């Protein structure tokens, strides 16, 4: 592959390789000695946050049982018209509409020279 063909594809050569900075950071973290106090502060902070969350969300204000003033209306079942599903006899209506359109068409002005023979 040439550099030009890789640019067309959209994957430049440099994106496949790790930068020197990334390699240096990985090597520092991997080569560091383990500490006896590693993570102790983080555990304490997480514990404090968990306690604060429990204190906040455990308040009585969040309980639904204590809210006696709130009331809702009873949901009524949906009403369905008995004749809603019945098909109406629309044949007579269709016939009337067709007759009216034919009547309108026949009463329209027609150029005498364009009459069908």
UniProtKB/TrEMBL annotation:
Which domain of life does the protein's organism represent?
Eukaryota
What InterPro entries is this protein classified in? Answer: YL1_N (IPR046757)
> Residue ranges of region Disordered?
1-117
Instruction: Give the Vps72/YL1 N-terminal domain ranges.
Output: 32-105
Q: Which residues form a coiled coil?
A: none
GO cellular component terms, alphabetically, are: nucleus
**Stored Pfam families:** YL1 (PF05764)
UniProt lists compositionally biased (Basic and acidic residues) regions at 69-85
Q: Per its record, how is this protein called by name?
A: Vps72/YL1 N-terminal domain-containing protein
